[in-house]
Specification:
Strand content of chain A: over 45%
Oligomer: heterodimer
Largest sheet of chain B: 6 strands, mixed
Helix content of chain A: under 10%
Shape of chain A: globular
Structural class of chain A: mainly beta
Low-confidence stretches of chain B: none
Distance between the termini of chain B: 41 Å
Helix content of chain B: under 10%
Number of helices of chain A: 0
Order of helices and strands of chain A: EEEEEEEEEEE
Number of strands of chain A: 11
Order of helices and strands of chain B: EEEEEEEEEEEE
Number of strands of chain B: 12
Radius of gyration of chain B: 14 Å
Structural class of chain B: mainly beta
Mean pLDDT of chain B: 91
Low-confidence stretches of chain A: none
Mean pLDDT of chain A: 93
């Protein structure tokens, strides 16, 4: 069953707190992605990971970092969250190269107060 | 850079009527872009609706069609007769290889509501 999971689905944090968003996939895809989506905007790419410990900045990496220690797992970390990081975050995975179809998780709605 | 411009915001169509969601793309770096339509149903992640990788070709899925027109840089999504179950958000996307991975540039999305 090809699936991308995200945890948690909803999260409320206070400004300055640390945030950890988790993503998993069961397809052994090499490439994983983190996007954010804000009202009236398309998905914006935060980071790409090409495999374990092989990460690359996307279009809007400032304020975020990522960790990929296992191929099936990709984390997005917000150190000292800011109110303008309130958004819906999507994780995706795909085969290496391409551009191939990306498989998306259901999203995490993060609110930073 | 790469960008996608599509019909945005709310689109309301009566059941059994036809639909068109416009999409045009711009790229300065990709010789042969791949074009995608993704759909997001309520509470779910985006899923691929259709994909076309060759100019001049048409993709189709679930009654939806889109033709990759390199001359007009367009990839409009059409359906002859929509159903209530088609209510969702539709995103046009442009695909490019980035390093050894791939990158998608998305339009802002069009929220389709099909009224009975």
């Amino acid at each position: 069953d090809m699936k991308v999971t995200q945890m948690p689905r909803y999260l409320i944090k206070r400004m300055g707190e640390n945030v950890l968003l988790e993503c998993g996939q069961d397809m052994s895809h090499e490439t994983m992605y983190w996007y954010r989506q804000d009202p009236g905007l398309g998905l914006q790419l935060i980071y790409i990971s090409y495999d374990v410990d092989s990460n690359s900045e996307g279009d809007i990496p400032k304020g975020y970092r990522v960790s990929r220690k296992k191929r099936e797992h990709f984390s997005l970390i917000l150190d000292s969250a800011k109110t303008n990081q309130t958004s819906v975050y999507f994780c995706a995975s795909s085969l290496l190269g391409g551009p191939y179809e990306q498989y998306f998780g259901p999203g995490t709605r993060l609110t930073v107060l | 850079g790469d960008s996608v411009t599509q019909t945005e915001g709310q689109v309301t169509v009566s059941e059994s009527k036809s639909l068109i969601i416009n999409c045009t793309y711009s790229t300065t770096s990709i010789a042969y872009p791949n074009l995608f339509w993704y759909v997001r149903y309520p509470g779910e992640g985006l899923q691929l609706l259709l994909k076309v990788i060759t100019a001049g070709q048409k993709g189709s899925s679930r009654g939806f069609e889109a033709t990759y027109n390199k001359e007009t840089t367009s990839f409009h999504l059409q359906k002859a007769s929509v159903q209530e179950s088609d209510s969702a958000v539709y995103y046009c996307a442009l695909g490019a290889t980035q390093g050894t991975g791939s990158k998608l540039s998305f339009g802002k999305g069009a929220k389709l509501t099909v009224s009975p």
